[in-house]
Specification:
Blueprint: H1 2-36, E1 45-56, E2 60-62, E3 70-80, E4 89-96, E5 109-115, E6 123-129, H2 132-177, H3 182-202, H4 206-233, H5 243-252, H6 260-290, H7 296-325, H8 327-335, H9 340-344, H10 347-378
Antiparallel strand pairs: 1-3, 1-5, 2-3, 3-4, 5-6
Helix pairs in contact: 1-2, 2-3, 3-4, 3-6, 4-6, 4-10, 6-7, 6-10, 7-10
């Protein structure tokens, strides 16, 4: 027992070192990519913290739609708390409109946009509320709940989530900027984050291996299904709302705009597919441990039966997530009284249905894949627990 614990500990230390080396190398490379990217000229604009000293609301009037909002011009005196103008007070005309409405009060902290070309007086605007402390607080509460309920596994799960976000931001996005295929970049990201997250959560074992293989297969299935759907529906990254901005970015980078939509589908399907892959694999190994006499076909059948209960809930999760993210667009389209054929054949609906159904089908097909892989590894000694 002590020997097994020592081996496990040794591998955990080795993997931790490899992980830190990987993250360091990716960070250095990502910074290099950002330095090489030719940004649009915004060197004269900085965003700094400020504190509202006083306000004049004499030219504000209540919004006709929402009585809790104001429209018009709000005059505010703001003390700059950092940067070159630290300690100075500036008078700002804060324009409040229906789509841009940052109403401030004395004592409130805000983010101030300071535009100061060389040799000119600074021009300041209230950019937004100072939300950072509350965002960090919510993340801390989230982490605390994970650790409180999950214990050591909660810590591992939180670290796995942090690593996923790190890999997407520091590896996948720079790869896409550099001209690599967004599909390739997302597949690499999925494989790396799946392996690291599941190993962090459950250690190195047959069960973890089965979950990794099942998740990778499920995400690839999602990509293949969406590839077929996008061909049939004639949609790509050029049909997205952000196309205009991405085309501008592509002029200064090697961004492949058409494939960006595929990358988003793969990443969005990862969480649900990973959940199903891990749950099915874990259940099958528990069944095998409780009754080692169960045959491989019996384990596969049991895994599929367990998966039947998960398919409904996970399918609802994915579909409702996509519906919830586009509720505003649906309200706008409905309010304009668009016709059925106009609605059902729009780019918006085609993309949302393609994303939702491809992810849901991937979840469904992950059930038999995970059942087969996990049951196979249960009866084979080709991968022993380290």
């Amino acid at each position: 027992m002590k020997k097994e614990n020592f081996k496990q500990r040794k591998w955990e230390i080795a993997l931790t070192i490899i992980l830190f080396v990987f993250m360091g190398a990716v960070s250095v490379w990502s910074l290099k990519v950002q330095n090489e990217y030719e940004h649009y000229n915004n060197e004269n604009v900085t965003y700094v913290k400020g504190k509202v000293i006083e306000t004049d609301n004499s030219e504000l009037e209540l919004d006709q739609i929402d009585s809790n909002r104001y429209n018009g011009v709000q005059y505010a005196k703001v003390q700059i708390l950092e940067g070159k103008l630290k300690g100075t007070q500036v008078d700002i005309e804060n324009y409040l409109m229906s789509y841009s409405n940052v109403y401030v009060e004395p004592g409130m902290k805000v983010i101030v946009s300071v535009d100061q070309p060389e040799g000119t007086e600074p021009y300041c605007l209230i950019y937004n509320y100072y939300r950072s402390p509350y965002i960090y607080l919510m993340i801390a509460v989230f982490a605390a709940l994970m650790i409180w309920i999950g214990g050591v596994k909660g810590i591992r799960a939180f670290l796995g989530l942090a690593f996923c976000l790190f890999t997407v931001i520091m590896l996948m996005l720079p790869m896409i900027y550099q001209g690599y295929s967004p599909v390739l970049a997302s597949v690499v990201t999925v494989v790396i984050t799946t392996a690291v997250s599941l190993v962090l959560l459950n250690g190195i074992s047959k069960k973890t291996t089965a979950a990794i293989i099942s998740t990778a297969a499920g995400v690839i299935i999602a990509g293949l299904i969406f590839g077929i759907m996008s061909w049939l529906l004639h949609v790509s990254g050029y049909n997205m709302d952000e196309t205009e901005y991405m085309v501008l970015v592509a002029q200064n980078t090697s961004l492949k705009v058409g494939e960006v939509l595929f990358a988003g589908v793969l990443i969005s399907a990862l969480g649900a597919v990973m959940d199903v892959g891990m749950s099915i694999s874990s259940a099958i190994f528990e069944l095998h441990e409780a009754n080692p006499k169960m045959t491989q076909s019996q384990l596969i059948k049991s895994g599929i039966n367990i998966g039947k209960d998960m398919v409904g809930t996970m399918s609802n999760t994915l579909i409702l997530a996509f519906v919830g993210s586009c509720i505003g667009e649906m309200l706008v389209l409905t309010s304009y009284g668009i016709r059925y054929h106009q609605f059902i054949n729009s780019d918006f609906i085609a993309i949302e249905i393609g994303q939702g159904l491809s992810g849901t089908m991937a979840v469904i097909l992950t059930v038999p894949v995970a059942s087969f892989v996990a049951s196979y590894l249960c009866h084979k000694n080709i991968i022993k627990r380290i």
